[in-house]
Structures are given as C-alpha cells and as structure tokens.
Amino acid sequence: MAHSRTTRRISLLGTVAFMTFHAAGALAQSAAPGSVIVLDPVVIQGDATAARFRATPGGVALIDRSETPTAEEAAPTLSDALSGTPGVVVQEFFGGNDQPRIQIRGSGLQQNPTERGLLVLQDGMPVNRADGSYVVGLATPGPAEDIEVFRGAAANRLGANVLGGALNFISASGATTPGTRLSFGAGSFGRVDVAGSYGVVNDQGDALLRFEHSEKDGYRDYNSSRRSSVGGNATLQMGEATTRLFFSHTDLRFDVAGPLTWDAIRNDPTSNHTGPVIVGGIPVGPGPNVLRDLPRRATTQTLAGARTTLEDGDNIYDLGFSLSRTDDSFRFPISAGYRDTDGTDATLTARYSRMGEGELPLFETGLYWSVGEADRDYYHNLSGTRGPAFGHNRLRADTLSLFAGANLPLAGFTLSPSVAFNHANRENDDRWGAATRPTFAYGPGGPTAGTAPAVSTSYDRSYHGFTPALALSWQPAEDQFAWISISRGFEPPTHDDLLGTVGGSPNSGPTGTMFATPDLKAQTSTTLELGWRGRWQNLEWDATAYHSRIRNELLSLRDESGATLASVNADRTRHTGLELGLSGDLGERLRGRLAWTWQDFRFDGDPVRGDNRIAGAPRHLITAALDWQASEQLTVGGTLHWIPDETPVDNMNTMFNDAYAVVDLGADYALNDRAVLFARVTNLFDERYAASTLVVDVATAGQAAFIPGEGRAIHVGTRLRF
C-alpha cells in the first residue's frame, strides 16, 4: 500500500466484559486480556475467560446474542442487539433501516450520521478506516454469537483512540455452530430476511461459512434499504499455536429518508421533506428536498485477516493482521453533493501477556498499527444524478498505539497502572488541477451553472499524545467487584472532520471556497470513573459512574437547513453519566432486565453557548424487559423503550425533541430441538415520535430536523437447525 510516511501504532487487544458467558468457543476471537483461540467450547476455559471479564476495572459488558429478544431472527438490527446495554445509546437515524446513530459517553455525537467516536471490530480486527471513521451499517450483528462492549478507557488496550470505546462483534465458528442452520423472516414495510451457515469441526480444526441478506421498502415514501453479507472462518491447530483465518464481504445500500418538521412528525411521519417554501419572501421549513435530491448511500467492504495465539506456560503471544477494501458512495442532498471514497486499509496487532496468580495478566503490552489510503471525489447532485466533478483528493492516514499495563496485587486490592502512546497522521493531496471549480444552484428556471476560484484543500497534520490510566479494584464481598479509576483520553480528528464541503443550501451546491479544512486539534479528556458489579441471590447488577473533563471536543456543525458547516474544537466541555444494568428472576418462569443510562453533556463556560447542554444527547434512556417462560416450548417477552424528557436539537438549546415511550412484544415457539418459530410486534401502540434529530448549532422554528421512528410493524419467521 502506498504511503508517504511509515508510522507505527501499537495496542494491546486486551479488553474485558461482564455479565453473561456461555462458551469459550464463542470467545475464540475475544479481545479479553489473556484470551486465546480455542478449538472447542471447553467449559473450563469459558469459566476462566468469564472470570477475567468480571475482574476488569472498567465499564464493560458482554452481550450473549442468544439471550437477546431477537436471537432467532435471520437479520437482527444493531438496535435489537445493543439497545438493552447500559451506556450504549442507539437511535434510529435514517428512518427505520439498520443505520442507527450509536454513541457511548457522547462519542461522535454531533455527526450526522455518526462516523467516528467508536472503534468497531469484527473478530478483534477493525471495521474502521485507518483514520478512525466507519460506516455503522457494515457492522452486522446477525453472524455474531457475542458482542463485547468496552466503554471509555476500558478500550485503551485495543488502541481505541476515541472517547466512546469499542464494540467487538465475535463471529460464530464451526465448533460452536456445527451443521446447517437456516433462518427466514418477513414483515411489515416489505421486510424480507434470510440467513444461513454451515459449520464443521474435527480434532485438527473447524470451519464455518455463512451468508445473510435483508431488504426493506421502508416505513416512509423514500426509505428502501438492502444489506447482503457473506463470510466465514477457519481454525487450525499447529502444535502449541492456534490460528484463525476469517473473511467477510458486505454490500450495503439504503435511501436517506431525511428529517421532517415537527408538524410532519405528528401528522404525516411517512412523508419526506421537499425543501423550504417561500412565504412572503421568507423561506419557511428549511431542510433538504429529499424527493428531488434522492440522497442515498452505497457501500461495500471486504475484510480478511488472520490471528494466531501461542501459549507457553504463563506467557501468551497474540499476533493479528487484517486487510480491508472499502468503496463508499454517499449521495448527499445538493448542499454537499456526491462524496465517493474508495480505499484500502491494513492493520497489524500484536500483544504479549504474562499471567500471574490472578485472573488478569500480571503484565501486558501490545501494538496496534493501521495505515490506509483512499481516493475521494466530489460531484454535484443534480436531481439525484451525478453532475460535474468539483473535487479530487488522495487521502492517507496512519494511526499507531503502543500500550503497556499491569495488574499488581496489593494487600487485598489490585492496582492496575497502564499507559499508551498514540500517534496519528492525516494527509490530503488535493488533485484538482483547474483554476476554478463548477457550481450549481436551482432557481425558478431550473439549475444554473457557475464557477468559483479553486482554493487548495491539501493538508498534512500530525497528532500525538500519552494516555495514562490508574485503577484500584477490590472485592467488597463474595461475587462482588468494585473499582475506581482515573484515565486520560486522546482522539485525533478523521478526514471527515478535516475536509468537508461548505457554502451549500437546500437549493444550491457548495459555493465560495466550497471546502473547509479546519486546523483541528486532537480531543483530549480526563475521566474519573467508579464502578460496582456483582450478584446477590437472584439479582445481578453492573453500575458505572463517570465524569469527564474534555478539551477541544470535536464538533461537526450544521446550519438550520441541515447544510454542513466547518468542524470545530469546543474549548472546554464536560460529560457526566451513570450506566446501570439490573437483571434477576422475578419468579420461577419470569425474568426481568433493566438498563438505565443517564448522561449530562455540557459546554463549560463557552463564550457563545455558556453551559448549555450539548445537542443530540437524551438525558435519560431506559430499557425495561420482561421474559416469561410460558411452557417448555413457548417464551413470551415485552420491552419498553423510554426517553422520559426532552432532548436539545441545537447547541443553543432553543429547540427540543419531545419525550416518548415505545413498547415491543415478541414470542418464540420451539416446535422441536431443530425448529423455532418467532413473531414480533414493534411500536405496539403505533406511537408517532421522533427517534432522533439532526444535531445543529442554531435551530430555527419550523425547520426539518426530526427523524421519525418507525410505526407499528410485525415480523415473523423461523430458524432451522440440521
């Protein structure tokens, strides 16, 4: 891969999770400290890995996909898989298809859509590009047996140079899912899903092939989506070393249904906005003309890699490599135009763990290094067709993290010091050779062409910083674990922060300089965190409280019409939150779960915004679920999704999204040990509400800023095992 400078990045792939655990085979590609690849789901190994999860001083969770309400579905959504996890905020964004806004502790909150702030991994290797950006829809939860969640500094060992942390989707293997498995589903708004896998296992190794396809016409008039993926993995035993090879290919295409005015949310939520209307010479209802511009995204990614672990007594060695090719075409409304990005990224990870008498490594160190190069081209959007080009760029990025940490017994406590060094380069070579760039705007007579002087967008930026952390943990009682920690965070900007179109409007493409290339600083933070998890009789809990002081928080701003403004660094902000998970048996056949996320994100003495709340972050997010085992064959469940207070749409706190509550019901019926039928009803009471909003700096009354949640929907299907 071509690259102008070679930089190294190192990270320990040690991470941890708590809550449920069912098989070591499912964690064969875990990022837990001291984890190794195993051929079989050995119970002893599983118990050891689960113990490491419980002993980690940080905000972590392990989602056992078999225990989620949609475990039997062919193509579960990210919202289905993640919404019951405390600290993980999942909101519909593009209007019902599986492209949600995901944020943890305010990560990437201001982006529309969110494209940074989390490290997204598949089997321990990144879906992100080398600059840290990602397309959320490329993370498919269907093939995953487990999802590891690492919030905040718990992801430092992964090389996650982001505020939010990391998500690791752990694929099934031939050892854990042998034989043939098929799933089918169909439902409201033209939804059709199909998925299948075939796995084999013997003494020398295992192998699995799988596929998944889902498509949907969508709840709204312009709202179709389609996602297809194929993949597989193979595990080979070679002496004391075990190697896992894996690959995946995902093809993702979806319409961007866009925002609506609040009046449309209440009266016509299936519609699409058609731009501002001029009343008395004043534009009313600013926002994109979706039915004219037909915004849409089409992305493909091919990811292949290998990971080898070697156990030598108390020493564990782990080496991983992955290569990905991502082709992404995003047709924005006319204000931004087409953005085509085609590139290749390579990632190398290495780690060493020295185990002691405790559950966690006595010492661990590692490396994470990701490099990438991409061609990015810009074109005008003329009524949904590709118009003249106005930008050609070659983007290069490399991100390096080096990590070292220890877990030292100390008089009944464990002291866990660590430090990471992070270095990142972001380089843009502007290859537009002409003296001017074309412009286009719509007037009463249709589109009119013009020109603007071409201003170079080239830049070469470098960022580096240390992220030390110190945690103290102890067991206040049997089956309980508590910790307190302080940590530093470091997050460099992505190319999407550093290069963006400006000057557009709902009826014109970019004008003026046409691009902004702000000289952004890396975002840094200091976080104090306390946590307590454990079990008492039938009750399990996991509680984490945190307070972060952030300097130079990266904000991606938009104006009242939704058009992009230049990204900026906020001087000082503060993020405070509480993440609480409770679960327990309420009777012989009844079990309850509660996830409560409270978050208060504010500017800190900003000269313009004062101490206002940062837009887009609901203060409370509550998910409550009940599961009833009605018989040996029948399970019935219900889930409440509740945001009990209003959420600011703009940073000036002049416009707010209303509170809402949505109820889902579901049932699974096992015909035998090989066939299961399922049925789901989402939004049972057909609530009309805004699931999320655009995040703007200053809102104006009547603007299109609200993303409607999907109406009542029914989904039925079956899962077969052979």
UniProtKB/TrEMBL annotation:
Keywords assigned: Cell outer membrane, Membrane, Signal, TonB box, Transmembrane, Transmembrane beta strand, Transport
Single biological process term from Gene Ontology: siderophore transmembrane transport
Location, primary (coarse class): membrane
Motif TonB C-terminal box positions after renumbering to this chain: 705-722
Domain TonB-dependent receptor-like beta-barrel: start-end pairs: 289-684
Keyword flag Membrane: yes
UniProt family annotation: Belongs to the TonB-dependent receptor family.
Protein name: Iron complex outermembrane recepter protein
Gene source species: Paracoccus solventivorans
Organism classification: Bacteria, Pseudomonadati, Pseudomonadota, Alphaproteobacteria, Rhodobacterales
